[in-house]
Write a sequence for this structure.
């Protein structure tokens, strides 16, 4: 009932209580996404063949079933960039920035002398040696 703003005790639900209540719905949606993913790919493939007359690779990509806050998503992306797992361009994509905004940020970063100095100070990630190799 908290979705409707109705609370039996008169106090609004806390964010943790709402998240806890949503968890079973999120899990159910994730199960449906994994089950329907290949089926929707096949439907898209058939529709594309009918319209375009050619067979092209089609895949289904579902959005996140949970509802992370903007701050939580940004925090996760920052950690991935700092760990050098994700490049800055990838971070912009993960945060949902469109092509125009990414181009603007790219041009702003390319002319920033501080950014150039910082990039020259950070060593590139070290490649791991294959297992069994001796250094």
């Amino acid at each position: 009932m908290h979705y409707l703003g109705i609370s039996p005790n008169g106090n609004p639900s806390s964010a943790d209580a709402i998240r806890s209540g949503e968890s079973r719905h999120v899990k159910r949606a994730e199960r449906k996404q994994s089950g329907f993913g290949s089926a929707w790919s096949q439907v898209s493939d058939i529709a594309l063949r009918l319209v375009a007359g050619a067979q092209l690779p089609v895949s289904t990509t579902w959005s996140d079933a949970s509802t992370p806050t903007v701050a939580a998503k940004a925090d996760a992306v920052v950690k991935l960039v700092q760990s050098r797992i994700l490049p800055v361009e990838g971070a912009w994509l993960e945060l949902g920035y469109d092509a125009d905004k990414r181009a603007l940020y790219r041009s702003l970063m390319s002319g920033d002398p501080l950014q150039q100095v910082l990039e020259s100070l950070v060593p590139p990630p070290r490649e791991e040696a294959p297992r069994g190799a001796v250094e």
User: Anything to note?
Assistant: The two ends are 62 Å apart (CA to CA).
